[in-house]
Amino acid sequence: MHSPHPGVYRVNGRLATCNLAPGHKVYGEDLVKQNGKELRSWDAKRSKLAAALVNGLRLFPFQDGARILYLGAASGTTPSHVSDLVGKKGVVYCVEFSATVARDLIAVCETRENMLPIVDDARFPERYSDVGEVDVIYEDVADREQVLILEENAKRFLKDGGLAFFAVKSRSIDSTRPPKQVYSEVITRLLRSFDVLEKIRIDPFHRDHLFLVLRKR
Ligand SMILES: C[S@@+](CC[C@H](N)C(=O)[O-])C[C@H]1O[C@@H](n2cnc3c(N)ncnc32)[C@H](O)[C@@H]1O
Known about the structure:
Structural class: alpha/beta
Number of strands: 11
Low-confidence stretches: none
Largest sheet: 7 strands, mixed
CATH architecture: 3-Layer(aba) Sandwich
Radius of gyration: 16 Å
CATH class: Alpha Beta
Shape: globular
Strand order of the largest sheet: 7-6-5-8-9-11-10
Number of helices: 6
CATH superfamily: Vaccinia Virus protein VP39
Bound molecules: S-adenosylmethionine
Distance between the termini: 36 Å
Helix content: 25-40%
Mean pLDDT: 96
Strand content: 25-35%
Order of helices and strands: EEEEHEHEHEEHEHHEE
Oligomer: single chain
């Protein structure tokens, strides 16, 4: 069954996307054949984007042909579902700075033509400037400077009016203060260059995170 978001399915009550690399699993997810398609279950405990969908995310620009810059790709769990969603005409640039984790990411990218690994530090977007303009930035990096990372990458790559999906991790920014205080400061700062379109708590799947949808002004 389709959910209201294009490309997102529900199988036995769980989210799923249509596998762009049939037969290949990325993180032990279930593969289910349905109406001639192979669907991959999408685990909200493993993916903040799936958790945001379960908790009511409305805007969803991960559509056929979209160009996505994904910061903090890790071993490719969520990026692989984004790759399913944007399809062969789209592209997912996957930035990950840990060489160990990136080994698994590269293996996933080898099975998917639209997923391109960039083993580099998202604090230095000038080092991967050939990415060019993108429709969407997705950021999920556990870094104290996660707001600055978003600002600098958006300035360089995100089209005007483009959307940013941002998993704010309060403990990475300041573990000594209550998450609500950290979120409030983050939002005040982001309002300098973005409109805040959605704010979604992603409990109980991911604690101490706020998921934001932003539009670049
Ligand atoms: C929470 S994990 C990402 C999980 C992934 N988004 C998913 O849902 O499948 C955060 C990742 O960000 C990476 N990271 C942290 N700081 C970074 C930076 N400055 N540049 C690139 N990657 C970074 C970490 O190595 C880690 O793999």
